[in-house]
Amino acid sequence: MKRYWSRLLALVLVVVIGLVGCSSPDGLSGNYRQDTLDILNILRNTLELSQDSPDKTSQQALARQKINDFAARYQRNSSVAGLSSFTTIRTALNSLAGHYSSYPNRPVPQKLKNRLKKEFDQVEAALKREA
């Protein structure tokens, strides 16, 4: 009977570890196109917040986390590395992440906002072409 319980416990542990290991803790779906559109929406919403908005810091923290998650998931993915949408979104993400890390308490300058909005539009157009 003891042998039966130890095997059952081992099987349950394997199933639990397998399920936990296969889940996506970063909140990204693994679908590059959908993940890119989702991060664009989050970043646009974050950039449009006013400086005195009460949830500005939480939105910026969410944006930084999503930037890190996106980079970690797709940085070494060779199937998306050559896409023009990927290179453009990486440029935009690096610019915004650089601003957030260098100037965490300062608002995003209008010049950077304009450039990011232009790059976001280019990414959406490239995603439509690549689809």
From TrEMBL:
Membrane topology: Lipid-anchor
Self-association state and partner proteins as the record states: Monomer. Forms a complex with a monomeric, partially assembled PSII. This is probably the complex in which D1 is assembled and/or replaced.
Matching HAMAP family: PSII_Psb27 (MF_01481)
Keyword field contains Signal: yes
Keywords assigned by UniProt, alphabetized: Lipoprotein, Membrane, Palmitate, Signal, Thylakoid
Cell location: Cellular thylakoid membrane
Coiled-coil residue windows: none
Reported function: Plays a role in the repair and/or biogenesis of the calcium-manganese-oxide cluster on the lumenal face of the thylakoid membrane. Its presence in a photosystem II (PSII) preparation prevents binding of some small extrinsic subunits and thus assembly of calcium-manganese-oxide cluster.
Record's protein name: Photosystem II lipoprotein Psb27
Pfam family name, one: PSII_Pbs27
Gene: psb27
Annotated family: Belongs to the Psb27 family.
GO BP term, example: photosystem II assembly
GO CC term (a single one): thylakoid lumen
Entry-linked Gene3D superfamilies: Photosystem II Pbs27
